[in-house]
Amino acid sequence: MGRSLKKGPYVEERLERRVEELNRSRQKKVLKTWSRRSTILPEFVGHTLAVHNGKKFIPVYVTENMVGHKLGEFAATRTFKGHSARAAETSAKPK
């Protein structure tokens, strides 16, 4: 369920202030953040945010298409190791 329109998008205040500071000084630094639940705002476009996935920081370059999505959507938390070869062989053989 999404957030109500009356409340507006959730963005961590500290993250928003840091991006505003970069915009004012016209700098392009990588900002580290743990706030995966923050919504991407139009002010974030063109910046690189390092989003924590629980183990390390994943650099995410924000484009216009990402506005309205959450930061956590672009930093996967789980790694797919692949299916076992033995299970594939047994299911493929006819009985």
Question: What descriptive keywords fit this protein?
Answer:
single chain, 95 residues, alpha+beta, three-stranded mixed sheet, 2 helices, 3 strands, 22% helix, elongated
Explain the overall architecture.
This protein has about 100 residues and is of the alpha+beta class. About 20% of the residues lie in helices and about 15% in strands. The chain is built from 2 helices and 3 strands; from the N terminus they run αβββα. The protein has helices at about 15-25, 85-90; strands at about 30-35, 50, 55-60. A 3-stranded mixed sheet has the order 1-2-3, with helices on one face. A hairpin with a 4-residue loop joins strand 2 (about 50) and strand 3. The longest helix is centred in the N-terminal third of the chain and has 13 residues, at about 15-25. The model has no long low-confidence stretch (mean pLDDT about 90).
